[in-house]
Structure formats: structure tokens, C-alpha cells
Amino acid sequence: xxxxxxxxxxxxxxxxxxxxxxxxxxxxxxxxxxYAHRGLHDNLTDAPENSLAxxxxxxxxxxxxxxxxxxxxxxxxxxxxxxxxxxxxxxxxPVDSFTYEELQELPxxxxxxxxxxxxxxxxxxxxxxxLIVELKYKNGSKICEKAxxxxxxxxxxxxxESFHPQVLRWYRQNYPHICRGQLSMNYQRxxxxxxxxxxxxxxxxxxxxTRPDFIAYDCRAMHAVSKTICRNLFGCPLVAWTVKCQAxxxxxxxxxxxxxxxxxxxxx
Length: 268
Known about the structure:
There is one protein chain. The chain is 33% helix and 16% strand. With 268 residues, the chain is of the alpha/beta class. The chain starts with a helix and ends in a 7-residue tail after the last strand.
């Protein structure tokens, strides 16, 4: 045997161990429906993203919902994507610098809609469709604790996901029965997001700490190696985000199992 073979086998084994998802006692898979990204929204109408109106439209149409949660200054769990309100409300300040009551003074994209409480959204959806809840990790595990405290009283179907491995690690340690997903992408965009930490995240090398139940990956990276191995070797479901048109949906069907869409109505 050539001298390099044992080292290569050891490296391959370490890599596969690092990227492997949860392999035993897996929770039930997500329902096989399309998931509306931040609700069935249109930011030029009175149903903008992550608003009660957009969530109601998605539920009425029978689509699952993907949404984002983070904390306000007074510790309320609200549904909003960006850490800054510059894009959404034309106010260049972070969400967590406002109390919930202060946020109610800011319209979303000039509409009648305001940033809702997570509890309001759950009450509105009321189990009609499944939810994918993305936790926006910023300053420790408090978002996990507070969001899950609210979810503990919810009887509908849901799962959680995050870009930050610490969120999944927290769920692995505290709520292992809840379906958890690792968000990722190729991290080679115009924003210059390259470096060791992005390499690790791109290749899912923190999975040994978090053991996710599914991988949610940028749909434009259909052939990303680690997520493909997770699916083909370990049977880990893949969620495509965010599909922007029917042609993109058709192109990535072979490479993913679930689809988060935005800006069009999917056709089977």
C-alpha cells in the first residue's frame, strides 16, 4: 500500500464525519409543499415581506411559510429579516435598538403593515400550513430561548433553521426532538465573503457539532459538494432557497427535495 493511502483514508473519514447530519432518531420530515419566502409577499403592495398580510395570503393558498425572527431592545420576538431597518423602513438603525412599541410607528415599505410579533404570526397561521422558522443569531442564545418558549405553546408543524451553527447546537442540546436545519451557501459573492470561516460554513464542516436534520442551501449552488454528499450518502433532505422563477425551480428539482420560492407562483 502506498504511504499516502492511510492518510488519505483518514482525511476522507474525518471529512465525512464532520459533514454528516443526524443519522439516528431523526424527527419527521417537513411536509412536501412549496414554502413561500417571508410569506406570499410583494413589497410594492399592502402585503410586504414578513407581514401578517403576506402570511395570511400564503396560508390561504396552502403554501408553507418561511419566516425570520429576532429580538427587540425590550426582548420581544419579532418577525423581520434584516438586522437593520434601512431597507425595510428607511431607518438606518438596527432592529434591536427599538422596543416593540417603537417599531409599530414604522411602516413596512410604506404600507399599512407593521413588523409583527412572532406570537401574532403563530396565532394567525394556527397550524394551517407548516413553518420554517429562521433564527437570526446576533448576541447569544437568548433568541433561541425566547423563540422556543413561544413555540412550546404552538401545536402546528414547524422546524427551525439558521446560518449560525450555535443556534443548531443549542437546539441539539436543549430540544433534540425538534427538526433543525443548517442554512448555507457558497459564500463567494460580490460582497467578498471569503476566508476560513466562510470555507468552513460553505462545506458544512460544523455539522459534527450540530448534526442537522436538513440542509437549506442557495439554489444557485446546485452542485455544491458537501450538501450533495449529505443528501446522496446520508439521506439528508435538501431545501433550496430562494427560488425566483419557474425556470430556476425546474433546473434545481433534481438536486433538492424542498423549495422556498419568491416572486412567482410555482407550477408542478
